[in-house]
Automatic annotation (TrEMBL):
Protein name: Protein NRT1/ PTR FAMILY 5.10-like
Compartment list: Membrane
Record-linked InterPro entries: MFS_trans_sf, POT_fam, PTR2_symporter_CS
Alphabetized UniProt keyword annotations: Membrane, Phosphoprotein, Transmembrane, Transmembrane helix, Transport
PROSITE patterns for the chain: PTR2_1
Residues annotated as transmembrane: 127-150, 156-173, 207-226, 232-252, 337-356, 376-398, 419-439, 502-523, 548-568
An annotated GO BP: transmembrane transport
Gene name linked to the record: LOC110787601
Length: 580
């Protein structure tokens, strides 16, 4: 039996004997020579013809996405990195109000990728979601530039503020669709069933993060200078132009991309939801001896785990006929999603640690001697670039030197497994927190020795380069854990949910930032009460105890790593993910 797939102009052929579904792009009869060409299973070109391995996908297509991401990150960090200066300066907002507005916008920006991923995976597809979100992104940046231009020509009024914030939240909406889909679509350009392309896909995630960090460095360094020394209108206008260029680059590669074929049938969210409902309804039922249900296709391995979901395989009794039994492939799909959450939860402390690089690390640096020459000092905002520079230097070394060495030893295409990579990064972050605590203790001792404890605005005679080890180690830990998490949440979800998978990775950072804010607020209240008015985060940093906070984060990270290793040891990778 055949049914039409209008979205991809495909024919869905159902073999009644095996009850398996295969999606084949509708195409004229191929010549013998064309039949010999190496087509990519499950992928079509922009005209819905079978994707040819030599013409579509691989690095020639993936490079478009890396350039687009570099431009987008430069634009995003060019806006977010100096946003508090614009709100408190040009818009005249109090510091507390400006911080509240930034936190609200940042939170929305981190949550919207989940919605964007659901829309892409269920309705529009990755390519069209990226194009549509890019247009929204450009519109938002354009409104921000217009607002800054109007405020420079006349006195500030409410309409200009409204235009600015409408533009700012349009940027958040645009990023929500852009961020998870672009990376997932870029990784789709490699066929995981091909050994050579499987290695290239792992390398893609390294170079992707390289592009993210390089774009962020340029955004913070170049655009913050333009905004502070030239004009805010130009500082917001350049990101708008960058996003237009990024969209043009994306469209230029259209004919080279591989487009995943979407099968007709239920939404994966519907299937997964039905499994949980069926398992709940059969909670008291006993499983058959084999507990395996039917013998249809198995997209994922791991039936020995999360066996309570196997109860969804049991045919319902007469009372609950409204809930039908699920197939084994549906149960395994639900298990694949549920298995992600221990890894998700055991990286939240890492996200808390990660957020310190842009907050308390920066506060430490401001108190230290930042002078390079008698006439030049390192700008405070530039200190945030230390970690990014370390990542940019380290990732090519990792990809070109360390991975081939590890590959010879382990036989794995990526050298080490994804969970091993994440765990190594967590371990390095613990070392970074220990060093940060030791350096902060040294900073406090230096301030005390020179009688500066009550002079918070006086520079402590201690070089800012003392902070380089903690910045460098956090950068290296990012290169391991962040890239590992991106690859893991892309690779281990069902194929139809890969944008959602990457949005889950982004949600770790979002929730980690919120948890960091909550933890700081809680510790601030507790320690102020016990310390007679002085907390660990006193406004006078010379009276504060960031060293205690760093020791606490190191201890929490050790506890997190122990749980992570426990879950990782029992984790069963998807059956066809040989890289792991």
């Amino acid at each position: 039996m055949a049914t039409s797939n209008s979205k991809y102009n495909a024919i869905v052929v159902v073999d009644s004997a095996s009850a398996e579904t295969e999606s084949l792009p509708y195409t004229p009869l191929l010549t013998a020579e064309q039949q010999e060409q190496d087509t990519v299973p499950g992928a079509v070109d922009y005209k819905h013809r079978p994707a040819i391995r030599s013409k579509h996908g691989r690095w020639i297509s993936a490079s478009f996405f890396i350039w687009v991401e570099m431009a987008e990150r430069m634009a995003y960090f060019g806006i977010s990195g100096n946003l508090i200066s614009y709100l408190t300066g040009e818009l005249g907002q109090p510091t507390a109000m400006a911080a509240s507005n930034i936190n609200a916008w940042s939170g929305v920006s981190k949550l919207l990728p989940i919605l964007g991923a659901v829309i892409a995976d269920s309705f529009m597809g990755k390519y069209y979601t990226i194009v549509a979100s890019s247009c929204i992104y450009i519109l938002g940046l354009g409104l921000m530039a217009l607002s800054a231009m109007l405020s420079s020509l006349s006195c500030l009024n409410n309409s200009q503020i409204i235009i600015f914030f409408v533009g700012l939240y349009l940027v958040a909406i645009g990023q929500g669709g852009h961020k998870p889909c672009l990376q997932a679509f870029g990784a789709d350009q490699f066929d995981e069933e091909d050994p050579t392309e499987r290695k290239a896909k792992s390398s893609f995630f390294n170079w992707w993060y390289f592009g993210v960090c390089l774009g962020g460095l340029l955004g913070i360094g170049v655009l913050s200078y333009v905004q502070d020394n030239l004009s805010w209108a130009l500082g917001f206008g350049i990101p708008c132009i960058l996003l237009v260029i990024a969209l043009v680059i994306l469209l230029l590669g259209t004919m080279t991309y591989r487009y995943p074929v979407k099968l007709e049938g239920e939404s994966p969210f519907t299937r997964i939801g039905r499994v949980f409902v069926a398992a709940a309804n059969n909670w008291n039922a006993k499983l058959p001896v084999d507990g395996d249900g039917d013998g249809d296709a198995k997209p994922h391995d791991g039936s020995v785990q999360l066996t309570f979901l196997n109860k969804a395989l049991i045919a319902p009794d007469t009372v609950k006929r409204c809930v039908k039994a699920c197939s084994k492939s549906e149960v395994e799909e639900a298990k694949a999603v549920l298995k992600l959450f221990p890894t998700w939860a055991t990286n939240l402390v890492f996200a808390i640690v990660y957020s310190q690089t842009t907050t308390f690390f920066l506060k430490q640096g401001i108190t230290l001697d930042r002078s390079i020459t008698s006439n030049f000092a390192i700008p405070a905002a530039a200190m945030m670039s230390f970690s990014g520079i370390c990542i940019i230097v380290f990732l090519p070394i990792y990809d070109r030197v360390l991975v081939p060495i590890a590959r010879k030893s382990t036989g794995k295409p990526a050298g080490i497994s994804m969970l091993q990579r994440i765990g190594i990064g967590q371990f390095i972050s613990i070392i970074a927190m220990v060093i940060a605590a030791v350096i902060e203790k040294r900073r406090l001792e230096t301030a005390s020795e020179h009688g500066l404890m009550d002079l918070p605005n006086v520079t402590i005679p201690m070089s800012i380069w003392w902070l380089l080890p903690q910045y460098a180690l956090m950068g290296i830990s990012e290169a391991f854990t962040m890239v590992g998490l991106q690859e893991y949440f892309y690779d281990q979800v069902p194929n139809e949910l890969r944008s959602v998978g990457l949005s889950l990775y982004l949600s770790i950072l979002g929730l980690g930032g919120l948890l960091s804010s909550f933890l700081v607020s809680l510790i601030n209240k507790v320690t102020r009460f016990r310390g007679g008015g002085e907390s660990w985060f006193s406004n006078n940093l010379n009276h504060a105890h960031l060293d205690y906070f760093y020791w606490l984060l190191a201890a929490l990270s050790v506890l997190q790593l122990a749980f992570f290793v426990y879950f990782a040891k029992s984790y069963i990778y998807n059956k066809n993910k040989a890289s792991s």
